[in-house]
Amino acid sequence: MLDFAIFWDWLAFAVRWLHVITGIAWIGSSFYFVALDLGLRQRPGLPAGAFGEEWQVHGGGFYHIQKYLVAPSEMPEHLTWFKWESYMTWLSGFAMLAIVYYAGANLFLIDPNVLPMSVPVAILVSLCCLAGGWLVYDVLCRFLIGKADTALMVLLYFILVFIAWGLTHIFSGRAAFLHLGAITATIMSANVFMVIIPNQKIVVADLIAGRKPDPKYGKIAKQRSLHNNYLTLPVLFLMLSNHYPLAFGTQFSWVIASIVFMIGVLIRHYFNSIHARKGNPTWTWLVAAILFVVIIWLSTVPKVLTGEADAKPSAQAEIYLADAHFPKVRDTVMGRCSMCHAEEPVQEGIYHAPKGVMLDTDARIAEHAREIYLQAGRSHAMPPANLTHVTDEERRLIVTWFEGAGE
Predict the structure, then answer these.
(1) For the purposes of burial, counting CB atoms within 10 Å of the CB of 23, is it exposed (0-12), middle (13-18) or buried (19 or more)?
(2) Which residues of the chain have pLDDT under 70?
(3) Most exposed: 55, 203, 238, 378, by fewest CB within 10 Å?
(4) Do strands 61-68 and 50-58 pair parallel, antiparallel, or not at all (unpaired)?
């Protein structure tokens, strides 16, 4: 049990690190090409088929870049594809979902106060949400391609609002936000895998065969790339939100998520306008700031964290509750941790339970046994700076309790 718990935590860390690395690579390349595309300039004398060009300077050198709206007259000798950044970001993100939320479903995914479910059912619902979100989006895009782009984006926004509301009635608050981000990220990555790259391959195949590529493939890919551009910032917020209970653990969390999408669109509109040299719409930052203040207000209405009734402990938690060392561990946790990790913290400067973790009842302590073991037993991460003076003996007792439970 000792080796597995530590290994699993390091595995989660490694996959999270990979997810961050690949996410930076994907978002970085995406933002760069959006800025490049918007900054292209036309001039007389461009090669046949060239839509525009851009001169850039970076790292001590100059770069001369030209874009072909459909394709060049012949295939270049070297062609770089930007796709694996997207694929690996999604794959590592799904691995994180499985490691943290599926393996820890009773703690992180399921909230019996919201909707009682078994672990297999909760995981199946999660998978259906990811697939269903993409299918609905893809059907709408295919039906409205080139017909009503603005109406499509407005419709997609209201669909995302509905999904946000629905998820808060299925999963825990933390899992609801995570899934809203995962559904959006799945749409973005599937756009690359299912539409953008296949369309580019069709164009390449036409060039190799000596055929003139159909410009519709570029038009379709451009629409999906535009959507990805505006969805990126909300996804980042939603993925970071699981560290902030004020975002996911309040009564109006679905409204907060809906406003976050507005803020993301405003910020991207500002940068897109700057890159396209279409003015400096600084008003977007003012509106975004006002909306963020609204979010802050919503997070405190009617109170910081909604109350929860104590649900029946999981089978694993029952094992920790029944262990002979539990009474002493409970006294340690109650005395050293619950002043912060409670529905109504009493520690000065703490207004809500850090990360939404509450350790003020026997059942809650048992449910969080693994986290207590890793944070306060095997490491000295908690409490911060050992504020409540947990002794070495108390930490050894936590280790003994966790490792010996069920033996």
Answers:
(1) buried
(2) 1-3, 145-147, 302-311, 406-407
(3) 55
(4) antiparallel
Question: Per residue in 171-192, pLDDT tens?
Answer: 988 899 999 999 999 999 999 9
pLDDT in tens, 191-229: 999 999 998 888 888 877 878 888 888 888 888 888 999
Are 6 and 374 in contact by the 8 Å Cβ rule? The answer is yes
Specify whether 183 is located in the same domain as 279: yes
Residue type (1 letter), 73: S
Write down the residue that tokens 């306008």 correspond to.
273
Q: What are phi and psi of 63, to 5 degrees?
A: -125, 135
Q: What angle do CA 142, 144, 146 make, to 5 degrees?
A: 100
Answer whether residue 69 is part of any domain.
no
Q: Which residues contact 135 (CB under 8 A, 6 or more apart)?
A: none
H helices of 145-282, in order, are: 149-167, 173-190, 197-208, 216-240, 245-248, 253-275
Amino acid, single-letter form, for residue 64: H
Which of 298, 329, 359 corresponds to the end of one domain? 298
What DSSP character marks residue 41? B
Tell me the whole-structure pTM to 2 decimals. 0.82
Residues 332 and 208 in one domain: no
d(CA 85, CA 192) in angstroms, rounded, equals 10
Q: Determine the Cα–Cα distance for residues 180 and 175; give it in Å rounded to an integer.
A: 8
**Do 120 and 254 belong to one domain?**
yes
Q: Is residue 53 helix, strand or coil? A: strand
Q: Which DSSP category does 79 fall into?
A: -
| Distance, CA of 345 to chain centre | 28
In which element (H, E) is residue 66 found? strand 61-68
Domain match, 280 and 323 both: no
State which residues form the domain around 358: 315-404
